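thread: overnight batch results

M.L. [08:02]
morning all. the overnight job finished for the chain we discussed friday. pasting input first so we're all looking at the same thing
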Amino acid sequence: MLPTTGARSPLFALAVSAGFVLIFIFGFLAWQSPPRIPFPHGSTHVEMSITDNKAPISIAEIVRLLYSPLRIAPNEPQFSFLDDGTNLSSLSLPENPRYTKKLGRDVLILDLETRPLKSTEDFEQGVYDWRKLNHVSGGVFNHYTYALIHGYDYKFIHAHEFKDRHATWIKPSALANHIKDYKFIVFLDADATFRFMHLPIEWMLNYWKIEPKHSITMALDPWDPNEPQYNSDRFNRTYTNTGFMVVQNNPNTMELLRDWHECPDDTRYKGCSEWKQPKFHEQSAFGEYVRYDYEDYIKELPCAEANGYPGVQISNCQGKFIRHYWFEKHLIKKDFRENMMNAITLPIQRIFAENAGGVIVEQPENVIY
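M.L. [08:03]
and the structure it wrote out:
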């Protein structure tokens, strides 16, 4: 899942140190039994002191250092990675990519929930345990860590539920309330993950040829010709999935989001109230009504690009860039773990590959001197 690496990064030494810190932390958490560990409260800036002679370092800095040798530039011509087997694969950007510099905090990575994180409840009781982390926290941790790696802004919005419609209807209003402060909002459901955490969203925007006119980018749902009635609107057109959305701040976005938000009130679209509760709620309303008024401002991606996960055969929805685990949700935590462990162990592997610090000693003869 990682690109081939070149020359040693100038931050290599720091990355190694950071890696050892995280290994110690993770090892300590896993070793404790019973897993009741006291935690400090009252600060959102978590610090860890490396030695008594150095200032504390934040988890944000540790994560950035770990991933600094891995991060891909927004306009890197080619992205190489190991597929789910052991084959090296490569993807290339189109010529003249639009995004050549990091967007930083002009991008918001957004989580939106009506339910609290179970892991937070455990943490506040002093019983946080990685092994018991559910898929919601696993997905949120993936999104937050991705924001830290690339310097994007991040928000977890805890929204109150509607009284007359399904909870997923909170999406349009939350997007509308925050898009004015950003160039892009990248939203993911808790069961959707970034497959390559070292690959920036700017690279994906270039790969997908997202233009300034595109207000919303979504991936199509799987579609089976043997069961065409599923995941299709009344015109037999495949739905787009709202589990992953890239929302761009342009002159058409607010109107689109407002029409979508008001759709179940039958304000502009008569009959849309049908989708207050039945599946697929806001997704069905968008597919049945809204997208037909905003065709030029919506980018639809193939299901294979940003939907589904390995093993899904229909429409080849195997999550090339964004994985959406409609089922098998336990794999969300596995994805996050594998991403993190790759980043942590790469600098350690370099020590042995390059014999840094002379850790490898040749013993030409197996004798006692």
